[in-house]
Amino acid sequence: MDNTKLIIFSAPSGAGKTTIVRHLLANNPELAFSVSATTRERRSYEVDGKDYYFLSKEEFEEKIKNNEFAEYEQVYQGTYYGTLKSEIERLRKEGKNLIFDVDVEGGLKIKKLYQQDALAIFVKVSSVEVLKERLNNRNTETEAKRAERIAKAVKELMYEKLFDVVIENDNLEEALTKAQKLYNDFKNNTL
Ligand SMILES: Nc1nc2c(ncn2[C@@H]2O[C@H](COP(=O)(O)OP(=O)(O)O)[C@@H](O)[C@H]2O)c(=O)[nH]1
Ligand SMILES: Nc1ncnc2c1ncn2[C@@H]1O[C@H](COP(=O)(O)OP(=O)(O)O)[C@@H](O)[C@H]1O
């Protein structure tokens, strides 16, 4: 089946897209997570093959050479992230709707590739201060890496208008309800 839906979540780091994506996955069994490949270090709570395919730089560059990515980027200096064509094809063949957690540029590229089969959602918060606070609380990065994420986030805020829909994630409950409703409407062609 190649007419399944693709639902893309992009956001500045810390806005809450991973939290929203996990919630939708837990509540919608026909949804599957598009596992990206990356060269960044695994966080203690992450599982290889479930959260990301963790690859060496050499392995990743080999796949670039072989044209295996639908899209990829060096999101942070020296760190690759990308969506493998094989991942999308495998899950669509299984009849799954796919959900993506990718950065803003990656999200727009996937939207361009899949057009009306894809819904591109931008998650935002009311201020950069909120992002900083959440990244501090999540405590998964060093000070320098956090600063890099914040600098990128400030630039990404300008991309909001290029997305199909925006979800404000100041209140998590409201954001989760809106995300579920959007997914239902998109899935049922009633958006
Ligand atoms: N373009 C692209 N970006 C990705 C992909 N996978 C993850 N990302 C993005 O890379 C950025 C960094 O992700 P991560 O290291 O998990 O950090 P976090 O956003 O701070 O949780 C986030 O914006 C992700 O959405 C991908 O396959 N392609
Ligand atoms: N509405 C919210 N209010 C407060 N904290 C939140 C909210 N949404 C997410 N968080 C927390 O903020 C941090 C960043 O969220 P995460 O989903 O990892 O963001 P992203 O994937 O966009 O980087 C996490 O610790 C998460 O638990």
UniProtKB/TrEMBL annotation:
Coiled-coil residues: 125-189
Q: Which residues bind ATP?
A: A11, P12, S13, G14, A15, G16, K17, T18
Q: Which cellular compartments is it found in?
A: Cytoplasm
The catalysed reaction is: GMP + ATP = GDP + ADP
Q: Which CDD domains match?
A: GMPK (cd00071)
Q: Please state the Enzyme Commission number of this protein.
A: 2.7.4.8
* Gene Ontology CC terms, in alphabetical order: cytosol
Q: What does this protein do?
A: Essential for recycling GMP and indirectly, cGMP.
Name of protein = Guanylate kinase
Q: Which organism is it from?
A: Thermoflexibacter ruber
- Taxon lineage: Bacteria, Pseudomonadati, Bacteroidota, Cytophagia, Cytophagales
